[in-house]
Design brief:
Length: 137
Amino acid sequence: MLNCVSLKEIINEIVKKQRSLIITLPCSVKWSDYEKELDKVSNYKQNLNFKVHAFPTGVNKGDKCYVVHNGRIMGWMEIVGFAEKDFVCTTTDKKWKGKFIERSGPFHYLEEDIPYKGFQGFRYFDLEEYKLQNDIS
């Protein structure tokens, strides 16, 4: 019997591939310090917040958020929400207010060493497409 896949299923799979985001940490942040933050949220009991001017479209809870640090894609973590709020950072005691992409859970380190130039804000991202475009295997 032929395995039929509907056009809707194909389109949904293509769109799902493109639902990742990528963000950059400032180079002033030491990766070892950031790993301490990652450890605090690895059990989903706390969130890391990334401030944005506007929420991304077509990205949902459960999608991936890749992290760039010092010109390299370090890995990704799960997007767990989007919130407009004000809060005090438990690490720096800095007050924040605005729109935030919330991430939590274990950090998934990439096995490959993949260069990526840093930027401000967020971008929509597809790791496999990026690797193809940049001849990274």
